[in-house]
Each structure stands twice: as structure tokens, then as C-alpha cells.
From TrEMBL, chains A, B:
The keyword Oxidoreductase applies. Its cofactor is Zn(2+). InterPro entries: ADH-like_C (IPR013149), ADH-like_N (IPR013154), ADH_Zn_CS (IPR002328), ER (IPR020843), GroES-like_sf (IPR011032), NAD(P)-bd_dom_sf (IPR036291). This is Zinc-dependent alcohol dehydrogenase family protein. It comes from Nonomuraea purpurea. Keywords: Metal-binding, Oxidoreductase, Zinc. It comes from the Bacteria. Belongs to the zinc-containing alcohol dehydrogenase family.
Length: 353, 353
């Protein structure tokens, strides 16, 4: 079968790789499943190794967002059946350990991330390929009832990562009914954070964006205001919009030092930053936090814990996060998909096998 | 009258200063009060300039914790009467502005801190003296009903700062019923954080302390466990005590980089650090926060907002934070009071005029 391999800076290739097979010995044997991918996509965080910011030591599988149909299951798999349409979170988890039960499945004591096998520590399948072996299938996979309408596949695919990650920003920021919110970052995660803030009852949502197409999508998702300014000017503008003190919550969905500083300095005294941008660029000024009482909370999203709740809203159309995909390509065009995201010609590219 | 003046490194002197007088012109006139100090004390944060870590540019008044009796009031003061016994928070506030109404009186739009006048920006009285002019007296001061029994004065004095600051750590950390908690720091604030965690319903409270007298006081205040180890060993010990993953909440009550790192690495995945130690020592590792989902929240405590609630519990004896004072001296011995705290011979020194 074919799957994406990253070799180094701006070098992702579709290559022939061994077909996945169910594990037959070792600690994870009998607990896995093989999924035929119906759709996958490229994540903003895939661009870190693509751009050479994360060094690629050796060629490796890449991709962590996919949905598909179960083709085979291990002998001890109980929650997933052959033929089920499933969503795979960007992390592997048993959904039973202490961290999973606490609501933190992304920190599962027996889990891990696509591309490495949490049971053996060795290499494993990742999401951008034709088929994927899923470790701990009972814990990891979420079954979509019935056979979803093809038009829903983009929205279901966002449940692998960007929609629950945007939701995690909003939950970490403490967004609730009548909150005032600013969102830093207009990528797919930032746009999903707008959806999440609206869904949690925010009264006013400011999208920080300077791109007309993303501004328009943010408005459709529930943004009440758009601020194109950044940095100091962005902080000043947002403070001014909220009685001179700033909004209750700022959602940081970029990950640079500049975006985090902007978020931290935009929130009102005693406010909160919910952050989900993978941090590249340096530490947090704790003195600023101390003198403003602005809290900071966030990180890798516990996708599995959020999935049941968000799936309901996707299936009934309450939220439409699938609209963050503004391009679709066959898996064979994967170099072009990465280039389109790298050059910001696309918000997010959906890949069909 | 006499008041404490800090001149430089380890140089605090009691000196003759002008008697305070009510302001008769300018924006704050008519809104202030003169309080005769019944008791004041030395704060851990007073040791930063005393130790030369905060540079003292010119001799200035010092001290920000006091209780006393109102001697004079401005013409527009309504909530405070001559003869009232009052508690002064470590910050000045009007208790009516947007930040005050949001619960963040320490960020009052018209307030400030002892030693400088928030209305004029000029020099003003501080807490370690015989009498103090209190700006914005209606907002700042809290009246204790009746005339408190002298035995209650130490506990009432802790309501100026250390008790609400310990409470702020616990609130910022999200301590609630059945929380598991570790407290980093065994100074007066750390000990008050133990009281606060117990008061908010924590199921288990670990005090990190290597001093027998402080360990004993922590136990009396509600600590269920004592851990003398610090740094890596402290983190490992605390993780191990809570199923290998750590407690829900860690309260950071020191302010050094080491103590903050220890706090951040001790909390369970998805846990929370509530911090109130004045940060000296460098920024926060946001990468550690991201990969663990441990949130960090805290800062200068909004004392005025917490006072009504905590005062009730002090008056009825539910909490006894006055026991953090293990030494008492006359104001004239103020150099000795600073030395005793600096050399850790005393947890906290109470000063009587």
C-alpha cells in the first residue's frame, strides 16, 4: 500500500510501504484494528518538521488525522466491528487508565502518538496513508453510528484534531455563557476555536485575522468582530473594545512567542489564556502573569474525551467545522497539499486515498 | 510620629516622619482616613528590597500589612467611622470600578499600593508606622464589627495579606471538595495556603517543608502529609504519593524559578498550579505546560474581594491564621524583626507600636 513519508525539509513523498497486519504477539496483540482510510489531512503541526523547525532525523511516516472503515480487528477488540466507520483521534489511548478517567486521554498511561507503537516503542503507521494499524482500538477509535453521508466526512475528519483542539482552547480558557473572547490565530484551529467559543455561549468573539477569506469564515462560525491588527496594535485594539481592560478570555491558536505574548497581554486583569498552539519560540513571562493575574492553561487536547459530545453536534449539523477544508486533493498529490498549506494558499487540505 | 524607612540592603530604620493629614485638595480629597496602627508586620516580600534583590533607589516608607483604629475621616467617607477597628488590605482600591466589580480589586483602576498615592502618584504612608493615611478609605478598609478581642488581632492582621494570599493560591489552583493538593513553601503564605486548601474541602494536603516547627504548624492547619524533599526528589516523592501521576493541584508560595519548576512538574496531567510567590528567577517553561496540560494561574491577591468571607471564619474561630506569628516585637525593634525573618529565625513577626 501507499503512505506518506517525510524525508526532511519540504520533502514529503508518497511511497510503497508494507501492508499493516494485526499484532500477533507482544503486549498489544489482539487489541488492535486495521482501518482503511476514507479521508485524512495535513495539520499545521505537520508543517514544523516540513519546514525543518523540527529536525527529521530519519525518514518516517507522518499524519495523525484520519477517518475510515474498520477492515480487521484483533481477537480481543470489543467496541469496534469490521465495517464500522470510525474517527481516530490524533492520539492513541486505552480510555480506561487513571489519566483517561480523569479526562486526560492524551496522557494515557499506555497510549502514544501515531507513527510510533506505544506498546513496543517501535515504528508504526501514521495517518496519511491508505490503511492504518490502530493500537488499543477499543480505547482509541470512536464509532460513527450507521454509515455517514459523504457530505459529513470533512466535518467528521475535523474531529480527529482541529475541532476538539479548538474546543480545548475554549475549555482551557474557561469560556462559558456570556464570556467575552478574543481568538489569536486564523488557521483551522483558530477557526474551530471560534466555533467552540460560540457553542459554549460566548457573548462576543473577536477573531484576530488579516485574511479576507478567513475573516469571512470566522464570521460565519460566530465571530462578532474582526481585528486585523497584531502585536502591540492588536493588544491595544482588543483592550479598547472591552472597556479598556480587555476580554475575559483569549484563545491562543498559533504557538509562537509573539502570539502568546499578544494573548497574555490582551486578556483583562484576572482573565485567562487558553492555548493550544504547539509552543515554538520561548518561555512565558511569569512576571506578566503575576502582575495581571491572567492564567494560562492548555496544551495537547484530550481529543478522545471530547469526541462523544462534539460528534453529536456534528451529526445534527449544529456545528459545521468541515468548512475549514478549502482544498481537497488525492493522496497522490501529497507534496502539493503540504506546499499549499506551507504557502498559506489553503487553510486546510483534505486528502482522499 | 515614627515609621519604618528602608534605606538599602539590610538597612531598615525607625525614623521621625510628618504626622499624616487628610488630603484637602486634589482628586482624592475628602475620601481618605487616618488610621492609628494597632499591629503591623513584616512580609516575605519586604525581604526582596531588604536583601538588595529589589534595588532601593532612595529611602522610602515600607510595610503593607496593618490593622488599627480610625482616628479621622475625610468629608466624603461614608463606610468608615471614627473609632472603627479596620483591616487594611495590602492594596488600595475604590471597590467600585470595573476591575473591582469583576473580583479583581488589586487591579483597581484608581487604586495602588502602600507607599505611593494612587491619586497623586506621589509618596504616601506605608504600613509599618504609628499612623497611616489611607486613600480611598471607603473602598480600601474593612470594618471589624465591634471591638475585637485582643487575642484576635494576630488573625485579623493576617487578613491584610498572608491569609487572603494563601486563599488566592488555592482559588487560583481550583481547589475544591476532595481535591488533592501539594503546597510548595512553608513560609506564612504557604502555611495559610494549607489553611485555605483545608477550608475549601481538599481531601489530602501535602506540605513541602524541612523545618520541624513549620511541619508541626502545617499539620495543625490541616496538612495530611509532610514531604521534606525538594527539587527532583520532591517531585518524584509527590508523584509517587498520588498513584504515580501527582496531585490535582500544586500551590506555589515561594516565587523562585526552582519552586515554580517543582510545582509545575509535580501536578498531575491536566492539573493546575496556583501561584502567589512574587516571581524572582525567570520565565515559565511553556513547553512543559503544553505537554502536561498543567495550567498556571495566580498573582497578586485581590485581598479586598476575599476579606468579607474570610473575616467571618476568623471571627468565629473556624480558621486560626494568627498562629503564623511566632514572634512579636515593638515597632522600635524593627531592624531586629527584619533580621529574624531574613535569617529564618521567625516565620512572621508581629509589630506593636
Amino acid at each position: 500500500m501507499q503512505a506518506a513519508i517525510i524525508h526532511g525539509d519540504r520533502d514529503v513523498r508518497l511511497e510503497n510501504v508494507p501492508d499493516p497486519v494485526l499484532a500477533t504477539d507482544g503486549p498489544g496483540s489482539g487489541l488492535d484494528a486495521i482501518v482503511r482510510v476514507a479521508a485524512s489531512c495535513v495539520c499545521g503541526s505537520d508543517l514544523w518538521p516540513y519546514r525543518g523547525i523540527d529536525k527529521v532525523e530519519a525518514p518516517r511516516r507522518i499524519g495523525h488525522e484520519f477517518v475510515g472503515i474498520v477492515e480487521e480487528i484483533g481477537t480481543n477488540v470489543e467496541n469496534v466491528r469490521v465495517g464500522d466507520f470510525v474517527i481516530a483521534p490524533f492520539h492513541i489511548c486505552d480510555n480506561t487508565c487513571l489519566n483517561c478517567r480523569n479526562g486526560w486521554s492524551v496522557h494515557c498511561l499506555h497510549g502514544g502518538f501515531w507513527g510510533s507503537d506505544p506498546q513496543t516503542g517501535g515504528s508504526a503507521d501514521a495517518g496519511q496513508g491508505e490503511r492504518v494499524r490502530v493500537p488499543l482500538a477499543d480505547g482509541t477509535l470512536v464509532v460513527v453510528p450507521g454509515r455517514p453521508d459523504p457530505s459529513l466526512i470533512p466535518a467528521l475528519l475535523t474531529l480527529s484534531d482541529v475541532m476538539p483542539t479548538g474546543h480545548h482552547a475554549a475549555v482551557s480558557g474557561g469560556v462559558s455563557k456570556d464570556s467575552t473572547v478574543a481568538v489569536v490565530g486564523d488557521g483551522a484551529v483558530g477557526l474551530c476555536a471560534v466555533i467552540a467559543a460560540k457553542r459554549l455561549g460566548a457573548a462576543r468573539i473577536v477573531a484576530m485575522s488579516r485574511h479576507a477569506d478567513r475573516q469571512e469564515l470566522a464570521r460565519q462560525f460566530g465571530a462578532t468582530d474582526i481585528v486585523p491588527e497584531r502585536g502591540e496594535a492588536g493588544v491595544a485594539k482588543v483592550k479598547e473594545m472591552f472597556d479598556g481592560i480587555g476580554p475575559d478570555v483569549v484563545l491562543e491558536c498559533v504557538g509562537t512567542k509573539e502570539s502568546m505574548d499578544q494573548a497574555l497581554r490582551s486578556a483583562r486583569p484576572g482573565g485567562q489564556v487558553g492555548f493550544v498552539g504547539v509552543p515554538y519560540g520561548g518561555p512565558l513571562e511569569v512576571g506578566t502573569m503575576f502582575s495581571s493575574n491572567v492564567g494560562v492553561r492548555g496544551g495537547v487536547a484530550p481529543v478522545r474525551n471530547y469526541l462523544d459530545e462534539l460528534l453529536i453536534d456534528v451529526l445534527d449539523g449544529t456545528i459545521q467545522p468541515g468548512r475549514v477544508f478549502d482544498a481537497e486533493m488525492p493522496l497522490s498529490d501529497i507534496p502539493a497539499a503540504y506546499a499549499a498549506m506551507d504557502e498559506r494558499r489553503a487553510i486546510k487540505v483534505l486528502l482522499r486515498p
